[in-house]
Automatic annotation (TrEMBL):
<keyword id="KW-0012">Acyltransferase</keyword>
<dbReference type="InterPro" id="IPR016039">
    <property type="entry name" value="Thiolase-like"/>
</dbReference>
<protein>
    <recommendedName>
        <fullName>Beta-ketoacyl-[acyl-carrier-protein] synthase III C-terminal domain-containing protein</fullName>
    </recommendedName>
</protein>
<feature type="domain" description="Beta-ketoacyl-[acyl-carrier-protein] synthase III C-terminal">
    <location>
        <begin position="244"/>
        <end position="334"/>
    </location>
</feature>
<dbReference type="InterPro" id="IPR013747">
    <property type="entry name" value="ACP_syn_III_C"/>
</dbReference>
<dbReference type="GO" id="GO:0016746">
    <property type="term" value="F:acyltransferase activity"/>
</dbReference>
<keyword id="KW-0808">Transferase</keyword>
<dbReference type="GO" id="GO:0044550">
    <property type="term" value="P:secondary metabolite biosynthetic process"/>
</dbReference>
<dbReference type="Pfam" id="PF08541">
    <property type="entry name" value="ACP_syn_III_C"/>
</dbReference>
Length: 338
């Protein structure tokens, strides 16, 4: 397999920083308000009314353009995008992102099933494409989470316990065929037996695209939450341990663990399962909330900027998606920012 490196990551958070009080002032006591899954972060960021997912990715890519130059992005052979809430029906964001960044890649993919684990999923896809029948040298991967300020601020949804958890943001990665910052191992697993367990709920019932009363949101119940907690607690350590086995390192010897950021309980359980101290598991939850797929690149970018990772460190990126239908992990020997 051709050696692929994660040369850099960059991220963007919208300017609108929203405190937990904004939700607390209208919160109603629903049956899930005391559930550990919905203990609100102190802050989260919301996409602006006139801002799009493409805008956010373009702003996230600014750091990579500044450090590596426009040609490093424009010359990429592959662009892979994950968007939580596409700007238009039918049309993914990849084509418009390529246009904004001056790219003319051979491959543009808009992927959806990776969910919160989309970043390792996109690394895996890029690795295979760049080593395939039409080999290339560079790829750009990007994740945009834009549902918090659009779905979870609806007047009724805002009163629900689930509304205060998500935040908006975007993250990008620049990949290159080289050994500068090598991807040491990748593991992606589909758990199709859980597909369909995440549901979109509207009362009275209707399809999400049909006009009518009621505001759409995620259909959580106590029994579903118990299942998601069990799956997430198991799956993230499983894929991380699988990558550790591939590369011959014990999980406790990882220099950094970067996961998606769903809630404090998962964050604690994952680092304990991998036998890592809190300082080796960066946490953006209280500032950003649950960033879904953008959680890994945003958190990794912040960890680099804060000096929590140094050249030569082995960094594990790991996450699970939706109600547990997908999980992925990738280990990187970080080459530093030039």
């Amino acid at each position: 397999m051709t050696t692929l490196s994660l040369l850099d990551v960059a991220s963007y958070l919208p300017e609108n920083r929203v405190s937990a009080d904004w939700y607390a002032e209208v919160a109603e006591s629903d049956e899930l308000s005391e559930n550990v899954m919905f203990k609100a972060p102190k802050f989260r960021h919301h996409i602006a009314e006139d801002e799009t997912a493409v805008d956010m990715v373009e702003r996230a890519a600014a750091g990579i353009l500044e450090r590596h130059g426009p040609a490093a992005v424009a010359g990429a052979d592959v662009l892979i995008m994950h968007t939580q809430l596409p700007d238009l029906p039918f049309v993914g964001c990849g084509g418009e992102v390529a246009k904004r960044l001056g790219m003319k890649p051979k491959w543009i993919l808009d992927v959806h099933n990776g969910g919160c684990a989309a970043f390792p999923h996109m690394i895996s896809l890029a690795q295979k494409i760049l080593a395939g029948a039409e080999p290339g040298t560079k790829a750009v991967i990007a994740a945009a989470q834009n549902a918090a300020g659009q779905i979870f601020t609806q007047p009724h949804v805002r009163t629900l316990a689930q509304a205060a958890i998500p935040g908006d943001g975007a993250g990008c990665g620049l990949l290159e065929v080289s050994d500068a910052s090598p991807i040491l191992g990748v593991e992606c697993r589909n758990y199709s037996e859980y597909a369909g367990d995440m549901v979109y709920k509207v009362d009275p019932p209707r399809k999400y695209w049909q006009a009518g009363p009621g505001e759409g949101h995620v259909g959580f119940t106590e029994s579903k939450i118990i299942k998601v907690l069990a799956r997430g607690n198991r799956q993230v350590p499983e894929v991380a341990h699988a990558v550790c086995a591939q590369i011959g390192i014990a999980s406790k010897d990882l220099d950094l663990l970067v996961t998606n950021q769903p809630n404090r309980l998962f964050l604690r359980n994952w680092r304990e399962a991998l036998e890592l101290p809190e300082e080796r598991h960066p946490d953006t939850f209280d500032e950003c909330g649950n960033l879904f797929a953008a959680g890994i690149p945003v958190t990794f970018d912040h960890a680099i900027a804060e000096g929590k990772v140094k050249r030569g460190d082995v960094v594990m990126l790991a996450a699970f998606a939706h109600a547990g239908d997908f999980a992925g992990a990738a280990a990187v020997r970080w080459g530093g920012r030039s």
